Amino acid sequence: MARKAGTKNLTQLGRDATIPASPEDAVLERVPNPHADTNYIARFTVPEFTSTCPVTGQPDFAHIVIDYVPGKWLVESKSLKLYLQSFRNHGAFHEDCTVAIGKRLVKTLAPKWLRIGGYWYPRGGIPIDVFWQTGKLPSGVWVPDQGVAPYRGRG
Fold it and tell me: 3-class DSSP state for residue 128?
């Protein structure tokens, strides 16, 4: 099977790949955007994100939503999945995980605009939601609500 133009240098798609030991070890790959002349939103929803508390070592869970307006590049989704899975044994606070993911995507893709919402499940009885964005949203782009309800507990 012939590989599509711009994908010949991918190291993970279509190949066996293991979960990286850490986010720093993860290879985040990109492919050319076939519609670079069009402003649109690409969304990744990660409802079962896991990291580790850097103090207690206990697992932390979040629902992550990433929206971006691509420029010349799209993130290759298998590499994104492996990158996000690399946080499973990574000790970091909620704010650090959320913002680090956003910054790594910006560094790799140079999108026109990106936002990330980290909707974290309670730790010590307090849910922590973290939001970060960068770039200027092009006019006329439809940005849907991230669709994650605020944490309500049993109340």
Answer: coil
